[in-house]
Structure formats: structure tokens, C-alpha cells
Design brief:
Blueprint (H helix, E strand, L loop, with lengths): L9 H24 L5 H23 L9
Helix pairs in contact: 1-2
């Protein structure tokens, strides 16, 4: 059984992971250094990127549909 391809390419997937890690690490640093609550924006962006990565994982875990006639 083959796996279905996701909607992210390998390069896009690596960049998504990099973006997630950077924004997840930036949030506590900016929460410590800034007096306002602008660090919440980093948390929201990290959550959106994580959602895209999880959706791509879910699509990749589906079995590939075979469209060839037998």
C-alpha cells in the first residue's frame, strides 16, 4: 500500500517546521522582554503553522488511491 502525497513539498515542509520552531522559541523570549502582550501573536502564528503541518501529516497517512483500471 502506498501513501498519498501531502499538499506540502519536502522543502515547504522543512520551512514550515523551521517557522514553527522559530516562532515557538520567539514567543517566550518576547514575553520576557516586552511589556505588552504582543507575544501572543507569535503563539497564534506557531499554532497556525502547526495546524498546517498536522493537516499535511494526516493527508500523507491516508492510503493512496489507485486510479488505474484493473
Amino acid at each position: 500500500m502506498h501513501q498519498a502525497p501531502g499538499f506540502l513539498s519536502a522543502r515547504q515542509r522543512r520551512l514550515a517546521w523551521l517557522g514553527f520552531v522559530l516562532t515557538a522559541l520567539q514567543a517566550p523570549v518576547s514575553a520576557r522582554l516586552l511589556p505588552d502582550e504582543s507575544w501572543l501573536f507569535s503563539v497564534c502564528v506557531a499554532m497556525m503553522v502547526a495546524t498546517v503541518i498536522l493537516a499535511d501529516d494526516a493527508m500523507r497517512r491516508r492510503p493512496a488511491t489507485d486510479s488505474s483500471p484493473e
